[in-house]
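Troubleshooting: if your tokenizer reports a length mismatch, compare against these two reference records.
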Amino acid sequence: MMEYVHKRKSLYKMMVFIILYMNVLLTFAVIYILLDVTDLGYLKDHYASNAHQEQPLDYLTRSLYFSTITLLSVGYGDVTPFGLARAFAMIEAIIGYLLPAVIVIQFIPFNKSENMRDY
């Protein structure tokens, strides 16, 4: 029975972190769109034409793509932030580096009595 409870708690924690990642990703994508619309910062796609980058759907897809690549610390370099978007990209990258550590810490048992108390 304890193993079943432990598996459910682990699954619950993983779902919480997936939702947290998606929330951070979408929040920063919206920030990048707002920065682009208000001319405070923008994302430049080096492989797309200027006409393509002016399309409304491209704001959304470029922002989601850049947010995902930045949060997951991949950083291909095909999309570059300018203006205030650079500061938000740095904040997102720091969050992307810290979240995996937080996730790992959540699954490490620190104290036997603490673990037994949970059941």
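Reference record two:
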Amino acid sequence: MNTLTRVKEGVAAFGRPPAAPAAVRLAADAVEAAELRAYATHPDVVALRVERVRTEVDRLCWAGIVLGLGFTMTNVQSFAAAGTPAWSLPWLAAWLLDPTVSLVLLAILRAEQVTARYQVRTGAWTRRAKWFTLAATYVMNTWHSWAAGSVSGVVLHSVPPLVVFVAAEAVTDLRDKLTEAVTAAFREAQQRAAPVTADLPEETTTESTKPKRRNRKRSGQRVTFADYMAVAREAWTPGVVVSPAWVREVTTCSRGLSSRLAATLAAELNAANTSDGGDAR
């Protein structure tokens, strides 16, 4: 009996199984790492991470804009009240001036948040309205300091409106670029990562796709776009509406890839129908 056997028996005597060989542990770690990497590099996961960054950027910019507009409210009210007695009707009405301007500005920024997400350009009047509201806030906030000739007052009351102005301009470009980053990350991950859904359980597939997918698994080959198209063409029958959901059902491809497959197959079918109609005439 060699030393390794005695050690295993001694460990088993205390109720613990012997340690697995190093090669077995490394093989198990490799399988687990490969599975984790497949999901980590999946196009939808990569795009979701960029989406989360965009959400964080939006929240931080909105917090800074709201705080900056809140800081300017008292100065604008003082400008509008113009020395009227406290709690008088003009004094109370002066508090409405800053929210009037700020709400219009926030409405424009909120609309740009949606248009920038889908990369839709707004008109010239949108930018003019945004600049006018920001300029009005700046003038009303710094008027007393300019009139009194206070340099420190001008600097103090200029910083919040200018920060709001810069943030309002920058956040639109940031949303636009982050949208492009989401698309680019999705495409890059889609090109370099194998679809995770290609290894779904067999009960989720149709009979026509089972043999082909099993053969690919045995050979270790990657499922390509052409392979998915071949399966979809074979599964299609007259009267079936080609949609991304139908493509995912018959090919078990990823959600992002199903839209491309459905569009390509629909274009091929339409072209075939058009050519058949021309020959019949």
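Descriptive notes for reference record two:
- The radius of gyration is 32 Å.
- The chain has two domains: 41-193, 225-274.
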